[in-house]
Amino acid sequence: MGTSEIVWSCIALVISIASFVVAAYFYKWVKALPVANARLEEVGKLIRDGAFTFLKREYRILGLFAAVVMVLIILFFPEPIWHGNAGKNITMAIVYLFGTALSALAGYVGISIATLSNVRAATAAQESIQKSFMAGFRGGAVMGMAVVGTSLAGAALVYLVTQDPEIVMAFSFGASSLALFAKAGGGIFTKTADIAADLTGKVELGIPEDDPRNPAVIADNVGDVAGMGADLFDSNVAAMAATIVIAAAIGQVAFMFAITSMGLLASIAGVFLSRLGPKGSPSRALNGGTYVTCGIFAVLTLIAVLISQFDIRLWLCAMLGMVAGVIIGITSDFFTGDDKKPVAKVAESCQNGPAFTILNGFSYGLLSCLPALLGIGLTALISYKLGEAIGPGYAMMGISTAAIGMLSIIGMIISNDAYGPIVDNARGVAEMAGLGDEVLEITDELDAAGNTAKAITKGFSIGAAGLTVISLLGAFLELVEGAGAQVTFDVMNPMVFFGILVGAAIPAVFSAMLMNGVNRNSQVMVKEIHRQFNSIPGLREGTSQPDYAKCIDISTRGAIRELIPAGLFTILMTLVVGFIGGPEAIGGFLVGNIVTGLLLALLMSNAGGLWDNAKKFVESGNFGGKGSDAHKAAVIGDTVGDPFKDTAGPSINTQITVVSLVSSLAATLFVKFHLF
């Protein structure tokens, strides 16, 4: 390991520690804010207890899964232990467990701060929108700083200690595999409750969204914060791991740590500078913070490149990735923003019934795919050419640098992403605690901005996932060549074509498994809500309390039951294809998985966000407002979009990353053991 690598790895550790200090400061700042009254405190405690109950049960199952995988790694990865490579296998297993532990810690931090921030943001809304915004945003910033600091520190520590890029891939697999299940489980949990609450409450009974009479509303608010930021955490770790594998071959690991550490430093500055002015818009404040962070990042990285004498063309690749991320985010904003034409058009179509709502929203979702996919493709192409111009081995480095450039300001992006569920919760607890219409208006405005922010961050995460998995494909080639095989991905080769077809089907099947899980569990929840309204005296009139715990238990048991099969299916199919057709089949498998995965992720995230904001557009008084036929059609559109945008869509990002990492970890096995 060269001096430059040691220096920049240590700088990355120092800046990570600084991010932990910032996270701790914001945590204390949020916790010190007042809570309005005892009723709000009670509602907040119900949500917090429910969230941690779900988290403990989920982590208990995932802990068993991680233990089984750890044993398999010791026995088989990267080579069978009886081939005399026991030391490396054991090291990889330990590092894998380290990755899962950090990913679990990120989830714990997210739920902890979200369930503190929600009631405080609701309380602050009694004073002003500015104070409520800061409570929500700084709560999200705790998540942003903790997640990015953890992932960067983990990657730097593993590389400093082992100096082995392949072992860093095991760390990434640990983080990604747990993130896959956490995102899927959280998505199934929240949409089970959300769909059931909306259909029974708004459509059947005509009661408000977060009416305390509805037994599912606490479970809905619990689920909003489950699995937060898991897809972005996963993409960040995977991008760093892929870049380390590619960069190690050409002696550029120091550059990777320079870019990522300066990105975290820029995010620290950005979250401190983010404010909502007296006449400002929450959406503009969130976007403004992102743009300021981008500017700071560009300056800091240019200084680092000039001081360390890195090739300026690699810096251009990072800038290209960052700009592409912003453009993809803006595209998502156009198709999902509450003040944009597509949302208004879908809301207008709600007057003609739910069929037109679905058709219109789905069509816009499909249209939204082209700009983002074009952006990802052009970014990969240009960065590849920039790298190729530097010299041999730098072409794939260009793409991986663009990926970490797109993820460079992830600290700010996750802060914005986590802000969304926090202010959504704030709106819910404000209604349940009866804080009044003025507070609801403020939290509705913050929530609408949160929906748009979530759409933009999902655009970032999908774009980053696209570039990351292309980088992982390059890392897979490096590892295959290291195992003594030469592979070319010729689509006329039947083995490659076989892999493409199977890989293309995986995201669709994975999505179907998750959404069927939501469908099954929601029907159970609807029956429970009907039972409570029919059997609890005074519930309809609001003179008695519903059984919130029963609905939380239904969501929890359903999510735990459904989350393992979908994730396990993708991992097993990767291994099956690899052992049937070897590296060539896996190359095709990854290409097919990437293309359809990105398409479905964009479609689902954008269509879902669009339907959600179309519903809010109607609820704000347009086309008949709340209780109208247009409103009922909009609610049905939103319930279709809920598992799109919050369950399947973001989970696909992690799915395509996980199969790429599994392929890299098993590369040596695929080279030595395959049927054809």
Outline:
This protein has 20 helices and no strands. By secondary structure, it is mainly α.
Q: How does this model look, in words?
A:
84% of the residues lie in helices and 0% in strands. The protein has 20 helices and no strands. By secondary structure, the protein is mainly alpha-helical. The two termini are 39 Å apart. The longest helix is centred in the last third of the chain and has 72 residues, at 548-619. The relative contact order is 0.14. α6 packs across α18 (548-619), α10 packs antiparallel against α13 (369-390) and α16 runs parallel beside α19. The chain has helices spanning 3-31, 38-76, 86-124, 129-162, 165-205, 217-224, 230-248, 253-273, 282-308, 312-336, 341-349, 354-367, 369-390, 395-406, 410-432, 437-482, 494-535, 548-619, 629-665, 667-672.
Mean pLDDT: 91
Give me the count of strands.
0
* Class inferred from helices and paired strands: mainly alpha
Instruction: Calculate Rg over CA atoms.
Output: 24 Å
Mind describing the biggest β-sheet? none
Brief descriptors of the model:
676 residues
Topology readout:
Layout: H1 3-31, H2 38-76, H3 86-124, H4 129-162, H5 165-205, H6 217-224, H7 230-248, H8 253-273, H9 282-308, H10 312-336, H11 341-349, H12 354-367, H13 369-390, H14 395-406, H15 410-432, H16 437-482, H17 494-535, H18 548-619, H19 629-665, H20 667-672
Helix pairs in contact: 1-4, 1-8, 2-3, 2-6, 2-18, 3-4, 3-5, 3-15, 4-5, 4-7, 4-8, 4-15, 5-6, 5-7, 5-17, 5-18, 5-19, 6-15, 6-18, 7-8, 7-14, 7-16, 7-19, 8-9, 8-15, 9-10, 9-16, 10-13, 10-14, 10-16, 11-12, 11-18, 12-18, 12-19, 13-14, 13-16, 14-16, 15-16, 16-18, 16-19, ...
